[in-house]
Every structure is written in structure tokens, then in C-alpha cells.
Amino acid sequence: MYIPAHFKPDDGAVHELLNHSGAADLITSTADGLLATMLPFLYDAPGSRPGMGELGALVGHVARANSQWRVPALEAMVIVRGPDAYISPSWYATKREHGRVVPTWNYLTAHVYGKLIIHDDVEWLEALVRRLTVNYESGRSHPWSVDDAPADYFAGQLRAIVGMEILIERIEAKAKLTQNRSAEDMAGAIAGLDESGEPEMAEAMRKVQR
To answer: How would you label 142-159 residue by residue, b for 16+ Cβ within 10 Å and e otherwise?
Structure first.
């Protein structure tokens, strides 16, 4: 990934992105070519369980019918995305000063590389599905629980999926958040994003502004 120095996030920002990644694209390089699946991941930070190395792991699952898990991966990469938004040059203070401005797109992303491990184990899968459910249901006023489903139905659903774990070996992350422009231009872009209904990007820019 092309990462100018002023767009390189610190470790804290990268960990925050991985912890709040939601769905991401798993891409594997195989003898059959490139294969890709979009799926929700959870991030296991370094030290949270044995055998993960210095960068942690991403864990998720795919449908058993998805052939990607069966094809040996030469390499594996997960593209994680944070907020992104169009940035209008009309928001910049410098537009009014000299007009030498152009549109751009702001975004946060990470390319996560590592070893792909397949988990075709019911206990591992049940633990993962329970974690995923708690992660996405806990903030709801009436959260759904795995135990709300009939036990035999849930067991059948577990047999229909396969676990995917990426033991992270390298992370390339980029936070393109108008850091290359003046404080006045950044403030104008944040105000424009707030007015346009893009609060996530506006907040991401406020964090690097502080």
C-alpha cells in the first residue's frame, strides 16, 4: 500500500480500527487465482490467548459451501475499512484565498497479512459465534442471544460453517484524513462533513486534529 508519512497512523489508531472493523474482505492467493469473501471479523489482540505472535489475529467464519476454505492459500490478506467520505474543495479556506484546490476522498484502511488457519471444529465455532453475537447485539435494547434459538437448529447452523483465522504477520495501515492541509482547511472539511451527515469521518479527523 502507498502510505505517505503524514498518512501513517500510530499503533493505537490501528488497533482501534481492527477492534471496530465489522465486515472486511478476506483475499487469498491460491493456485486457482485470487479468491475473496466479505465476512465479519473479530480482532484478538496480542497476548489475549496463547500462540498468536506479536500482532494478534483476526477470526471469522464462512459458509461450508464457500470453496475458499478448501483451496490452500499461498498468501492471505484481509482488507479492513474504517469510515470514508468525499471531501469537497468548497469546504477549504484556501479555496476562497486562491482557488487552487481539488476534490479528494478521505478514508481509514488496513491491509492485514498473515497465515490462514481453518477451524472445522464445533466447539471453536460455537465460541466464535457466541462472541460475534455478543459483539453486535450487546448495544441493542432487546439483544438476541444464541440461546434464543432452538438447540438443534443452532447445532445445524454450526455444521454449515467453517472457521477462518488469520494469524497476523504484517499490517499496512493508512489514515488519509486531510493531515496534509492547513488547520483551517481541516476545520472547514470537518464542518462540511458534519453538515453533510458524515459524523464518523468528521470524528476521525477531529482525533488527528487534537
So the answer is: eeeebeeeeeeeeeeebe
